[in-house]
Design a protein that fits this description.
Layout: E1 4-16, E2 21-23, E3 28-29, E4 33-50, E5 57-60, E6 63-64, H1 67-84, E7 89-96, H2 106-121, H3 128-136, E8 150-153, E9 164-167, E10 175-180, H4 191-201, H5 205-224, H6 228-247, H7 258-272, E11 277-281, E12 287-292, H8 296-303, E13 312-315, E14 322-325
Parallel strand pairs: 5-7
Antiparallel strand pairs: 1-4, 1-14, 2-3, 4-7, 4-8, 5-6, 8-9, 10-12, 10-13, 11-12
The chain binds (3R)-3-hydroxy-3-methyl-5-(phosphonooxy)pentanoic acid.
Length: about 325
């Protein structure tokens, strides 16, 4: 029997952000979040279990991961092995179509794909909710990449109630995201460390949690009712408030670079001229512009003076997790 499977997952970008954990082991979030899965960036992962004990090997884009990243994958695989009651070692081959660590949420597609491939390789029949719960324990945002299009990750109360589910939206065929790569290098503060520091030290953190939960309800309403303007306003607000909470941490930190600020300003100016566009940012300097298909040409022309053409990546809603046996 071959314990071998492959999965493909797409990254998602949160419109209403998740920032801060209530439980670091289980990755239970302080607040719920809502995202859009994108077609342009994905991870494909193959997992093969070998019926013997030993250490796991993990290759990302054909290169072995360093010890600490391998240990993180192994800890995640331990959870899958425990579900099946085996202690077999695994060989993992992963390919990322995402600039790793650039704040483009590569961990969302990575752990969603790993959850899908590893569970199938062991013959576990997990439904989407169970996959979302499993992926969450690798990286919170991965819970949302099980689904295509819009997904809402409810904070929940415990392991079994903290999962994502898909949302239907009239915006699906119209929404586009323009990713502006400001710097594709690894981020200096990981999202894990950034969240921990903000939760532990930022006096603004409790205000963030309270507001994020309230706004999430509004965002859900805007998305499901096709209110593009409100969705965009709320998305920009969520990003600004999340970043504000980090600025007040001790020591403070900031993912923005001067190029990020320049792009934010261009978005504001274009909006004042009637272009429907809003920005969002995650744990990195890149800016994601949320817009409509019909506005893409105007946006690209306006950004051409400031940003290289290769630094502009266009994305639309992408599909959910795909899993197959090998
Ligand atoms: O799931 P993580 O650890 O990659 O954290 C993601 C955090 C943000 O991207 C900043 C926000 C979000 O909701 O995706």
């Amino acid at each position: 029997m071959a314990h071998h499977a492959r999965a493909k997952a797409h990254t998602n970008i949160a419109l209403s952000k998740y920032w801060g954990k209530r439980d670091n082991e289980l990755i239970l979030p302080m607040n719920g979040s809502l995202s859009l899965t994108l077609d342009a960036f994905h991870t494909t992962t193959e997992v093969r279990f070998i019926e013997e004990r030993g250490s796991d090997t993990v290759l990302l884009n054909e290169q072995p991961l360093d010890d600490s990243a391998t240990a993180k994958v192994s800890r995640f695989l331990d959870r899958v092995r425990a579900l099946k009651g085996v202690d077999w070692r695994a060989e993992v081959h992963s390919h990322n179509q995402v600039p790793t660590g650039a704040g483009l949420a590569s961990s969302s597609s990575a752990f969603a794909a790993l959850a899908g491939a590893a569970s199938r390789a062991l013959g576990l029949e997990l439904d989407e909710r169970a996959l979302s719960i499993l992926a969450r324990k690798g990286s919170g945002s991965a819970s949302r990449s099980i689904f295509g299009g819009f997904a809402l990750w409810q904070a929940g109360e415990d392991d079994l109630s903290s999962y994502a589910y898909p949302l239907q939206s009239p915006l699906y065929d119209d929404i586009a995201m323009l990713v502006v790569v400001i710097n594709a290098a690894h981020k200096p503060v990981t999202s894990r460390e950034g969240m921990r520091r903000t939760v532990d030290t930022s006096p603004y953190y409790s205000a963030w949690v309270k507001d994020a939960e309230q706004r999430l309800g509004e965002m859900k309403h805007a998305v499901t009712h096709g209110d593009f303007t409100r969705m965009g306003e709320l998305a920009e607000m969520s990003a600004m408030r999340m970043h504000a909470s980090m600025l007040a941490a001790e020591p403070p930190f900031c993912y923005w670079e001067s190029g990020s600020l320049q792009v934010m300003q261009i978005v504001r100016e274009l909006r004042a001229q009637g272009c429907q566009c809003y920005f969002t940012m995650d744990a990195g300097p890149n800016v994601k512009i949320i817009t409509r298909n019909s506005e893409l040409a105007v946006l690209k022309r306006a950004l051409a003076a400031t940003v290289d053409e290769q630094a502009l990546l266009t994305a639309r809603p992408g599909p959910g997790l795909l899993v197959e046996n090998c």
